[in-house]
Amino acid sequence: MKRFGLVAVAAATVALIGLSAAVPQTTKSNTDTYRQLNLFAEVFERVRSDYVEEVKDDQLVEAAINGMLTSLDPHSSYLNAKNYQDMQVQTRGEFGGLGIEVTQENGFVKVVSPIDDTPAARAGLKPNDLITHLDGESIAGLSLPEAVEKMRGPVNSQIKLTIRREGREPFDVSLTRAVVKIQSVKSHLEGDNVGYIRITSFNEQTDSGLQNAVKTLKQEAGKKLIGFVLDLRNNPGGLLDQAIAVSDAFIDRGEIVSTRGRRSEDAQRWNAKGGDIAGGLPIVVLINGGSASASEIVAGALQDHRRAILLGTKSFGKGSVQTIIPLPGHGAMRLTTARYYTPSGRSIQAKGIEPDIAVEPAKIEKLTQGVIRHEADLRGALKNTDKPTADQTGAAANPPPNVPPGTTPADKGEAASVDPSVLGTAEDYQMARALDMLRGVALFNGRAVN
Question: How far apart are CA 345 and CA 321, in angstroms?
C-alpha cells in the first residue's frame, strides 16, 4: 500500500473536520483523535485499492459522513446537493414523493405521519406503521436517508411498500408518486358557531394561512362563534419559526418555547409578542401519536399557558432541534443541536405530551335498540299539564352536531393512530368530543352570565 495515499487522506480528513494539520498537540485526547483519523484513512485507502469494484472517492466520503451523522440519532444526517435542494423545496410547501414523514426504529422505517391529501394518506398508511420492504427488497441495513431516497422517484412512477402494523399480518401497499402540494392550513365552520382549523404541517405558509383562516371563520360565523378546534393530529412538524408564530397568535404574553444546547450560552428563548387572534374564545387542541416536533411546541405552549384544552392521545415525543448547516460546494448537514422545552420547563423528548382529556380514536355508529318504555307508556300514567315549549317536542334538544342521537363510541383504535380519511368529518369521534366540550363550555358560561 502506498503510504503517501494514507497521509494525504488523513490530512484531508483532519481539514474536513476543522482540526489543524500542523504540529499535533500532545494531550491524550488529541493523540486519540489522530489515531482514529489514521484508522479511517487506512480503511478508506484499503477500500479504494482492494474492493471488488471501483468506487469513487466522493461516494466513499459521502457515505462515511452520513454514517457518522446517522449514528448520532435518528434525525441527524447528510444531505447531498440534490437532497438539500429537495428539502428547501419541501419547506416551501411543494415537493415530489409519497407525502409521508418517517423516522427509523430497529432497522425499519417508521411512519410518523402521512400528510393529508397525498399518496401515503390515500393509501391508508397510519402513524407507527413499519415499512420493512421497498418493491420486495428488505430495507434492513439501509440508513434512513438511503431508504428515503429509494422511496423518491419520478412523478407517476409506482412503488410497493411492505407494511407491518400491530395486530395484522404484514401487507403490501402500492403507491403512485406525485407532486405533493401541502396546503398546511385547512378550515371550515362546524354547525354555525365553532371554527375548525387543521394544520397539516409547519411550512413557510402556515402562519399566514392561520391568520386568513381565523379571519374567514369570524366573518362566516359573525357573533355566533363560541370557540375553535385546532387539529394537530398527524402533523409531523416542520419549521420552528412557524410553530412559534402559531403559538404567539393565541398567547398574549410569556414564554412560548426555549431551546438548550450543549453549551449554556447557546440557550434561546422565544416570548409572545402580545395579541390573541381568537379574542379569548375557548380552544380545544387535538393531538395524537402523529403529532410531532413543531406540533408539540404549539400544543405544549397552549397547554402550559392554560390557553387551550388538549384532547386526544399522547403525542410522538420528538423534542430535539435540527439545524441545517450548508456545506459550500456540496450539500448540507442536518445536525441535532438542541432540545426544546415548553414554558413550564418540560422536555418532551421521548416522552410526548399527554392530553388533558384522553380520547381514543373510535367509530360513531348507531346502536340497535329494542323497544324502550317510558313513564308516558304506562297504563294510567298521570298527564303532564305544562304547556309544551319549543324544546319539549319529544326529541332531544340540540343534539351534538355530527353525532346522531343514540350513538356511542365503538371499536377503539390504536392510541396513537387515527384514520386520516376521517379527520374533520362527521365520523371523527375525537372531533365530536371536542365540539361537545366547546358547546358545553359556552352553555355553562351563558348560564353563569344570566
Answer: 16
